[in-house]
Amino acid sequence: MQVYHVKAIADPQRLADALMKAAQDPALAKKLGGTDSELGQLGESLKQSEQEAEELGKALKDASVDYWIGVDDMLMYKAALAGGLDTTGQKDMEGVEGMTMTATVTMSGFDEPVSVSPPAQAKSFDKLMEQMFGGMLSGSGTSF
User: Fold this and answer.
1) What is the pTM of this model?
2) Using CB atoms within 10 A as the burial measure, which of 21, 108, 129, 140 is most buried?
3) pLDDT digit string (tens) for 57-85?
4) What CA–CA distance (Å, rounded) separates 5 from 68?
5) Are 107 and 80 in contact (CB under 8 A)?
């Protein structure tokens, strides 16, 4: 099979700025299902995080995404994400000069039937979100 290999390399500071801008967009937050009070809390939290975003932009040394897309069917068969951080001099990172993160996803079996059986001890998605985000979502009418 022939595929197109597309590689995108991000400017680290622009990526950090774009992430902050997206996180501060009330329209995005509403699409994610937050209430006005939760959005206000998120906004306050993000103001405190601006310094962290600036630090992320300085620490992020590279960020890239590779896609392998079928020439004939335009389906994505593989995606690879990579990023590197320079942690030199960062608080609580003594002895660690940097980190490299990679992830690869491959896909196949398009348009084939799938059957999924939940694990015996599975929790509902709502309970998982409650555990991850605490009371921030409770009582908000948020559903997933």
Assistant:
1) 0.55
2) 129
3) 777 788 899 999 999 999 999 999 998 88
4) 5
5) no
Region 33-45: mean pLDDT is: 57
- At 76 the pLDDT is 96
Give the C-alpha separation, 48 to 7, whole Å.
33
- Dihedral in degrees, nearest 10, Cα atoms 106, 107, 108, 113: 140
How confident is the model at residue 83, as a pLDDT?
A: 86
CB 16 within 8 A of CB 61: no
DSSP letter (8 states) at residue 135: G
Q: Is 129 helix (H, G, I), strand (E, B) or coil?
A: helix
* C-alpha angle 111-112-116 in degrees, rounded to nearest 5: 120
Orientation of helix 36-59 relative to helix 12-23, angle to 10°: 170
Size (the chain), residues: 144
Are 33 and 142 in contact by the 8 Å Cβ rule? The answer is: yes
Beta strands in 16-88 (DSSP E): 60-70, 76-86
